[in-house]
Structure formats: structure tokens, C-alpha cells
Amino acid sequence: VQLQAFGGGLVQPGGFLRLSCAASGSISSINVMGWFRQAPGKQREEVAEIARDGSTNYADSVKGRFTISRDKAKNGVYLQMNSLKPEDTAVYYCNAKVSRLNYWGQGTLVTVSS
User: Fold this and answer.
1) Burial, 55: exposed, middle or buried (Cβ in 10 Å; 0-12, 13-18, 19+)?
2) How far apart are CA 49 and CA 38, in angstroms?
3) Strand 2-6 to strand 56-58: parallel, antiparallel, or no bridges (unpaired)?
4) Rg (CA), the chain
5) Is the distance from CB of 79 to CB of 19 less than 8 angstroms?
């Protein structure tokens, strides 16, 4: 499984961004896709995930602001991020879970700053 992420950038507090992740390879084997993020000096944390059946989970810190959804055209996922806060600043990574394996895309930097 190969993953490619798009859509990071600089945005002001209160603004929005949409990240996109395209998957290729053995996509039929993917059970869950999601997004993680890693801020400077912090551990990587899971932000949101969507399972094959469409069920979703979110970190408490982003509930009500972020929405994960499928991108059927790219066999991937979107992450719509609204009401962004400076603490959302991080490198965001697309993730795919296949059985017990994790696949990662390259990170995309999101900076929330005025």
C-alpha cells in the first residue's frame, strides 16, 4: 500500500484546510484509514480514522471541528479541518491499517498562525 498526502499549508486561527490522501497498491486489503499528527517535541497522535464500514473515530481535541470522509476517486480519504487553532499546528500523516501492519504517507505540514 502506498499513500500520498496533499493539502497542508499556512492558515490563520479560525480558518480551514482540507487534507487529501490517495492510496494505491493493495487497497482492497485496507481495513482502516486515518490521519495522525505530530507537533514539534510531541509524540505522534491519532486524529481521526474511518473504517471499511464507514464508522469513524476522532480524537477529543478535534471532535466537532474535523471530519474524515472517503475520497472514492482516489481510493483515499479527506480530512476537513475547520475552526483551526494554533495547537493544531503539526505534520499530518495519512495512515492505512492492513491487519496488524501500518502504512504511512509522507507528512504534510499544517501551520495555524496569524
Assistant:
1) exposed
2) 16
3) unpaired
4) 13
5) yes
Q: Tens of pLDDT along the chain (114 residues)? A: 999 999 999 999 999 999 999 999 888 888 999 999 999 999 999 999 999 999 999 999 999 999 999 988 878 999 999 999 999 999 999 999 998 899 999 999 999 999
Q: What are phi and psi of 73, to 5 degrees?
A: -65, -35
- CA-based nearest residue to 101, from 48, 20, 29: 29
Cβ–Cβ < 8 Å for 34, 91: no
Which amino acid is located at 67 in the chain?
A: T
For residue 4, how far is the Cα from the chain centroid? 11
* 68 contacts 49 by C-beta, under 8 angstroms: yes
